[in-house]
Amino acid sequence: MIDFELGIVQERFADIIWANEPIASGDLVKVCEKELRWKKSTTYTVLRKLCEKGIFQNEEGIVTSIISKEKFYSAKSEQIIEESYAGSLPSFIAAFTSNRKLSAKEAEEIQKMIDRFKEGGKK
């Protein structure tokens, strides 16, 4: 089972990997040194932790994802809805929109999504 709990720094690191994969671990160290100002040991420590979570793998010095960025964030969203809103998508949407007004364009996009799902399609 994949652990979807990532801190801000781990998410930033994961985004770097997703944007550059497949990437040699040595090249990843260089990117993290430039973008995050990390030392080599920090990069390898965080990489090891994300590999243990089942998100990435480092095989023969090449880092790749086990789960895509899109699937990761989709599953993370589902987990939040399940844990925080007892699996109720309407409750989540009500909470999400309670402090902000939807634009006409956003409402239209949401309605199109609902219509597609009613028809049995995805996305």
Gyration radius (Cα, Å) is 18 Å
Provide the CATH topology of the domain at 8-69: Arc Repressor Mutant, subunit A
CATH architecture designation of the domain at 8-69: Orthogonal Bundle
Text of the CATH class of the domain at 8-69: Mainly Alpha
Number of strands: 3
Structural class: mainly alpha
SS summary, helix count = 6
The low-confidence runs, each spanning 5 or more residues with pLDDT under 50, are none
> Can you summarize the main beta sheet?
3 strands, antiparallel
SSE run: HEHHEEHHH
Question: How would you state the average pLDDT, rounded?
Answer: 90
Give the fraction of residues assigned to helices: 55-70%
Percent of residues in β-strands: 5-15%
In the CATH hierarchy, what is the superfamily of the domain at 8-69?
A: Winged helix-like DNA-binding domain superfamily/Winged helix DNA-binding domain
Calculate the terminal CA-CA distance, rounded to whole Å.
25 Å
Gross geometry: elongated
Q: Widest sheet: strand order?
A: 1-3-2
